[in-house]
Amino acid sequence: MNDTPDFLEDKLPRRELIKKLGLGAAALGSAPFLASTAAAAEHGDRQTKDSEIGFKDGEFVLPPLDYDYDALEPHIDAKTMELHHSIHHQGYVNGANNAVEKLHAIASGDGDSGLVKHWTRELAFHGSGHSLHLLFWNNMKPDGGGEPSGELAGAIDASFGGFGNFARLFKAASGAVEASGWGILGYEPVSGRLVVLQAEKHHDITVHGVFPLLAIDVWEHAYYLKYQNRRGDYVDAFMNVINWDDVARRYRAAKG
Ligand code: MN3
Known about the structure:
binds manganese (III) ion, Helix Hairpins, 10 helices, disordered N terminus, 3-stranded antiparallel beta sheet, mainly alpha, 2 domains
C-alpha cells in the first residue's frame, strides 16, 4: 500500500481502488486470484453472501458456511464438514496471510529476498487452497444435484456433447487426481468453452486464465471419515449436493 498515492488512498476504500485503477489485486498487496473475484463482484447478479467473503479489512478471513455442518448428510457427514471447514480451511487462510506478510517485507526491503521462491510458493499453495475452498462450500447445498438448465446447460452441451458426457469426464478426472487435489469445471476464456481440469495439491497443473466454476475437493480430509479409500463413492455423492444455480451464476459472471 506504500505506493498508493495519498490522494487516492484518502478518497477511496481499498476495493474501490482496485476497480478504479484497473489493477490486479496483486499490485495492492493481495493474491492475484482476488482480481477475478473483484471483477466478478462488479457483475450485477454475482451474489455477495457472507459465505463468500474471504477477504476483509486487509486480510484473508474464513467466512461462515451458508448451511449447518450436518446439512449435507448423508452425502457428506457433519464431522468431516466441521473439521474440514474450521481446521483445514482455516489453515490455508493463515498460511496465505503469512505468505503475503513475508512477501510485503521482501518488497519493502526488510525481508530476506533469498526466500522469495519459498514465499511465492507458499502463497500459491495457501492462496489457491483458500480460493478453492470458498468455491467448494458455495458450490454445494442441501437437496442439490440434478442437472443445470438454461445457458449453463447449453454451454455444457456445446463443450462436452451433453450432461452425461460432462458428468462422466468430471467424475473420472476427480477420481483420478494423483494424491491430493481437486476436480474442476472451469470457463476457458480463449476458446469460450468449458473445460474439466484436475488440480494437484491446490495450484499445480492448471490452465492459467481458466475461471473455476465448480470444484470438488478430493483430498482425503474431504471424505476419509465416511468413505475411507472409496473416493469414487464420495465423488458420486458430491453430484447429489451440487448447487447448480451457484455454478450457473459463476458462469454468467465469467463470460461477462
Ligand atoms: Mn480441503
